[in-house]
Amino acid sequence: MRNGQKRNFARSLRRRMTDAEVRLWFHLRNRAFMGCKFRRQHPVGPYIADFTCIEARLIIELDGGQHAGSGRDASRTASLENEGYRVLRFWNNDVLTQTDAVLAAIVAELSARAALTPALSRKRERGLRG
């Protein structure tokens, strides 16, 4: 897929978000989550990641039932990790029924990554203060 096609496809995905994506985006958007900037349906390499925080090199993927037992997800994760990203995967159902636990897992990962990245740590502190 060429860059222009990928960009247009990402835009169409943003217009057709799942209920789980809408719920998580509510918490991640506008630097509201620990002061970190997240993008939704963001092209990364040959893929379009559900949610990406470039400064923390973190990708969050939400998976529905069609992903159960999918070997493609493992190869996708490996490829994204080779690009320097950490990939967190959550089931759509978990985002909808256990939102606080999902958010806690994201906080833990961002905190761990902030310890590795001083600039991210300063942004996180600003986000927690106000």
Automatic annotation (TrEMBL):
Residues 6-110 form the DUF559 domain. The keyword Iron does not apply. It comes from the Bacteria. GO terms for molecular function: endonuclease activity. Keywords: Endonuclease, Hydrolase, Nuclease. CDD domains: Endonuclease_DUF559. The keyword Transit peptide does not apply. It holds the Pfam family DUF559. This is Endonuclease domain-containing protein.
